[in-house]
Amino acid sequence: MAKFIADAGVCSRRQASRLIDDKCVLVNGRPANHIDHVDASDVIEVNGQQVKALTTKSYFAIYKPIGVDCKLIESDPTSLVHLLPKQIRLFPIGRLDKDSHGLLLLTNDGELCQQLNHPDFDKEKEYIVTTSKPITDEFCQQMMSGVPVKGVITRRCEVEQINETQFRIILTQGLNRQIRRMTKYCGNYVVDLKRVRIASLSLAELNLTPGKYCEIAKAQITS
Description:
By secondary structure, this protein is an alpha+beta fold.
């Protein structure tokens, strides 16, 4: 059931499962179950709106500006939803916190979103980070080796100092506010965080400026 909702572009499979648990999904007028098998002949409603399976999947990249929230809430003027094409319902693959900016991928392909948001998803994500205090070699080594974040030790990563207060970091995991938490643990603070690349996709190559988006191919995400 959750797969059908995700494939219809309503939300991710994880979010769809929550909607089923919350009795927000109806199948032919009755509350849906996770094990329901449905097809085009069934009437599926999510929060009172009828849902039909999509025949076309879409993939977009956007330069998320600072101050924009990745939660897709129409009533929130800071929501990312107001920057997206209105004719397609999209949701983000991963997130950037409100105070960060840079590359974000979006799709209505719920199956792909589920796969790429899984903890085993290890595509590289590259960031340029500016700190409040000068960076030391010890700081870089500590960041690379792994530090405690939310009860786990972060994976080994690549860290390269750019100048006195700026470094480049390449991660293969996406814990909540990970770079900010890592930086704080190592005795410094982030004042600017910009994601410049996801896998082989970079902001520079896509020629995106803050608030702008472009359509991309699925292969550009999965390659």
